[in-house]
Co-chaperonin GroES (Candidatus Galacturonatibacter soehngenii), 658 residues
Amino acid sequence: MKLVPLGDRVVIKQLVAEETTKSGIVLPGQNKEKPQQAEVVAVGPGGVVDGKEVEMQVKAGDKVIYSKYSGTEVEIDDEQFIIVKQSDILAVIE
Amino acid sequence: MKLVPLGDRVVIKQLVAEETTKSGIVLPGQNKEKPQQAEVVAVGPGGVVDGKEVEMQVKAGDKVIYSKYSGTEVEIDDEQFIIVKQSDILAVIE
Amino acid sequence: MKLVPLGDRVVIKQLVAEETTKSGIVLPGQNKEKPQQAEVVAVGPGGVVDGKEVEMQVKAGDKVIYSKYSGTEVEIDDEQFIIVKQSDILAVIE
Amino acid sequence: MKLVPLGDRVVIKQLVAEETTKSGIVLPGQNKEKPQQAEVVAVGPGGVVDGKEVEMQVKAGDKVIYSKYSGTEVEIDDEQFIIVKQSDILAVIE
Amino acid sequence: MKLVPLGDRVVIKQLVAEETTKSGIVLPGQNKEKPQQAEVVAVGPGGVVDGKEVEMQVKAGDKVIYSKYSGTEVEIDDEQFIIVKQSDILAVIE
Amino acid sequence: MKLVPLGDRVVIKQLVAEETTKSGIVLPGQNKEKPQQAEVVAVGPGGVVDGKEVEMQVKAGDKVIYSKYSGTEVEIDDEQFIIVKQSDILAVIE
Amino acid sequence: MKLVPLGDRVVIKQLVAEETTKSGIVLPGQNKEKPQQAEVVAVGPGGVVDGKEVEMQVKAGDKVIYSKYSGTEVEIDDEQFIIVKQSDILAVIE
């Protein structure tokens, strides 16, 4: 099952913090979500949205900062996603 | 009786979860609605809506994610439908 | 006395449910209004409304679904009408 | 003293119900105002209003339905008028 | 000291009712302000305001009806003025 | 340290009333601010602001009336300034 | 790790007041933030944002005044940033 966003929408997945113990062991997946940090999962085609031409500037795999409280949470196959408009994405983390 | 939506409106019907018992038997229609998941029933013609050209991007039969709290619930012949604007449809599920 | 709507406005009249008794007798006009279902009584000329070209897509006699809480209730010659903008009409029932 | 409305504004005066007694005698002017029914007293020139071309579609003498709670009540020479925008006039009564 | 309004702004001064006694003597200036009636004191140049071309339609000396609660009260040299946008002026009194 | 406003912004400084005693002596700087009266300190370049061409119509040194409650108060080097948009300036005092 | 803002967004970092003791010793970094004063860290590419062409007018290193309560606070690698739209930047401090 795959989410194909419409228009200028972007499917993102919140990033989970990797925790490194003092001894250097990485403990991934402790479900400690990094606030506002997410990975882009799927990107809409852009085009004319609400009467305005929108060009998509992020791509799947990008790590991004998104605007708090924006978007719609969706659960597909027991996985949590957030669907936001590209304008709710503030910056790419490089 | 058939609903023919105007403009950029789309008639959708909420999806009902199929439940599979542990033994593998599918129990359809337990009326457990999947939140925000719906099937497209009818699609308006698009065209100029509120002064802006809108092209319809979904079609009858598409499974879609729509924005919570959007749209108008309608009951026709004892069946429940929701009429939303296409812009309230966030993504197609493939 | 006749209502001639201006611009993109449409005069509608709420539909009253016909009730069928178990024996099959139709009991019309019990004043049980069908929510959001109405018949179009008169249609404005359309044209430039609020700076945007509007083409009228409904006609007198159409049965329509309209958006709850929209429009203005008007009483003319002891008959109740609702005047809505065409954009408050969601779908035509065929 | 005369009110000359600017732009797309229209000066209207609320209609007063003529009351007919059972014997057929008309009792005019009992000051029972007909809600939302008014007569057009003066019409602005239209033209570009708020950046949009507006053509005036009502004329002095028209009986109209106007939107409740819209407009500004004005008292000139002890007479009550309401100044509305043409877009607050929903329909002409013929 | 003189107020020169910018853009589509208009400086107005509320009218004070002349009171006529029963014997016909006019008692001016009892400081009984006529609500919403004012005299235009100065008129801005119009031009492009908020991206829209505005043509000024009132001139100094015009008696006008203005929209209640609109505008900004200003005191210059112990005189009270109100600065409104031209669109807050509803009608000219002739 | 100097404030250079962006776009259609204007840096203003509230005017302080000069007080003249009965004997004619001017007592400046009693810190009695004249409400809504200010002197223009610096003016942005104008240009395209929020998609609309804005031409600056005030200049440094102008005494102006500005809209109450508008703008952002800023303290630079212990001096108080207000940064407003030009559209919050209602009139120039000449 | 680097923040690359999208569209007309700007990454800023609040300025911390240098404190100078009476004897002239500068005490930097006492974490006394200067309200609304920030340094630009990274600037988006501008371009068409929400249907309007935006040209970026600030650059990394600029000291700016920004609008209180605007923007989104972000923590990256234990450093605090604020991501604002360029239109929330009121002035450059030179």
